[in-house]
Amino acid sequence: MAGGGEGGELQLLGAWLSPWVIRVKVALQMKGLSYEYIEENLQHKSELLLSSNPVHKKVPVLIHAGRPVCESLVVLEYVDEAWAGAGTPLLPADPYDRAVARFWATYVNDTFFPSWRPLFRATTAEQRAEAFENVLPQVETLERALTECSKGKAFFGGDAVGIVDLALGSFVVWIRAVDELGGTNLLDEARVPGLAAWAERFMAVDAVEEVMPEAGRIMEHYKGFLAKLAAPAGSS
């Protein structure tokens, strides 16, 4: 990665499979920033993580010149402001457009993700069918949001990837793994043609390709996760 951070070095505390960490990695790549990446074991969290994020004790945490910034969307805005002249802006210049982008990025975190999580955790066909139906309205809402935010261009951010693209795009590799294993198709071209095409474009962006975890590795982890969920209580 190019050039270091102004005013001190950068460290990112993360977990390779976390969508919240992936979005920050893509943003740092887009800005051309070099940083030290520290992989956290979330079963045995480091003292650095616990002291850097004592409130939530979660990744990602971006540490800039010794000062921690927590929560992925906050980190994205911080990176955009701290390195305003570097790479691609993550938020629009217009105040109203910025507010709209913040709204939809928060929607991904607070509305889409909680509604998709039951599908991610489903271990039976019945659970999967119910969860799939429950998340469809949120996906259809995001299809309309893409039309509103993109103004007919390639991304939520317009011509280039922005904060909403990062928020939702960090889930694409996971959405595809869940669909492949469960036989569902959340980003169905017939139902949400805009999002289906957008997902292909997002995954093909250089900065995304360079940091996105390999799909096979995600799939293997997901299979193991589901096997543990489905195992009878008390089994190892």
Automatic annotation (TrEMBL):
Its EC number is 2.5.1.18. InterPro entries: Glutathione-S-Trfase_C-like, Glutathione-S-Trfase_C_sf, Glutathione_S-Trfase, Glutathione_S-Trfase_N, GST_C_Tau, Omega/Tau-like, Thioredoxin-like_sf. It is found in: Cytoplasm, Cytosol. It is an enzyme of class 2 (transferase). The keyword Transferase applies. Residues 8-87 form the GST N-terminal domain. Residues 94-225 form the GST C-terminal domain. It catalyses: RX + glutathione = an S-substituted glutathione + a halide anion + H(+). One of its GO terms (cellular component) is cytoplasm. The lineage of its organism: Eukaryota, Viridiplantae, Streptophyta, Embryophyta, Tracheophyta. It holds the Pfam family GST_C_2. One of its GO terms (molecular function) is glutathione transferase activity. Keywords: Cytoplasm, Transferase. This is Glutathione S-transferase. GO terms for biological process: glutathione metabolic process. The keyword Cytoplasm applies. Its main location: cytoplasm. Belongs to the GST superfamily. Tau family. Is involved in the conjugation of reduced glutathione to a wide number of exogenous and endogenous hydrophobic electrophiles.
